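Subject: complex prediction, re-run

Hi both,

The earlier run crashed halfway through, so I resubmitted it with identical inputs.
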Amino acid sequence: MTDSATASRPPKRERLVESARDLLYEQGVQRTTLAQIAERADVPVGNVYYYYKTRDELVHAVIESRLERIREVLGELDRRSSPKARLKALTSAWTDEGAQVAEHGCPLGGLVYELNKDHSPLSEEGAQLMRELVDWSERQFRELGRRDAATLAFSLISSIQGAALLTNTFHDESLFRREVRRLGRWIDSI
Amino acid sequence: MTDSATASRPPKRERLVESARDLLYEQGVQRTTLAQIAERADVPVGNVYYYYKTRDELVHAVIESRLERIREVLGELDRRSSPKARLKALTSAWTDEGAQVAEHGCPLGGLVYELNKDHSPLSEEGAQLMRELVDWSERQFRELGRRDAATLAFSLISSIQGAALLTNTFHDESLFRREVRRLGRWIDSI
DNA sequence: GTCTATATAGCGATAGAC
DNA sequence: GTCTATCGCTATATAGAC
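This time it finished cleanly. Structure:
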């Protein structure tokens, strides 16, 4: 038994990233303290530094975790038969979390916004989250034979991100659903 | 001479709001300290509290300043002859600041994003910034005879906000210009 | 009204016992 | 590997001289 005392709980290192991921989303990067992260992960504060030497290193782990999740989701979407079906399935991925978007905004958009203000390598790592989405979308539009695929991809992800911001601002999930439905029709019309 | 020593400089209270407005935009709300605000305004730190009892009160003043400016700009746009011209002029207001958007994001969007995470009255005050833009846009679309004016207004402001986020993320002003041109054509097509 | 000096609290990070 | 205790710093905010 190399695991910790209480049987099958995920090891501390993993618990810390999960806790950080959730808190960074709910409260924002700047407002979240190591004490809060440690408390939710049920790890003593001082012990955090055994797993992550600095706060930034922990934030880095969260970005990596988000990046892996994005690639995982996009990989699943790639199994769908047509580019249009894939693009529409992407938008559905957001509406599935509509309630959380209304409460806390887009998990990716918020993170990226804050990292944009950061003068560290984290900023560029955050940008990669968006690049992944835009590039994947661009490939779909290109498969549809659009030469302006890059522009369309930028428009699509932009619209979703902006809709998430306003939805969060007005705390009204229905706004998000309506806008994403609109984007679905737009994709169909292409 | 009731003014300060160096003749015609704006009074300190005003200098503080201006300094705070700029720094909150450039660095974000959370990262900006009173010391930085005071320094840029050329006011001693301790003296800030003579003009604003708390930090939140100063942030409140910045929101009010932004709100006034929005109403001022929208008031000027109202002088244009057609709703379409007014809507397109609104989008131009953003591209005029394209370089800054690429560097720091949208001055309103960033502020609103951060205030959304705030558990204070400032959050609702921030929402009013967006409401002002959406409501004004909705009136224009309604004048165009659109019954889905509310939806279209939401889409327009969403797209601009999302485009600003991605433009800031990729630090490429041309992305913003291209997307706003696209929105201009969309307005024309309505 | 204006300024300096300082109180107070909370943060990230470290040292070292176990 | 795990934990407690605490350092050092910086932030907001206050007290009080001028």
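DSSP finds ten helices and no strands in chain B.

- K.
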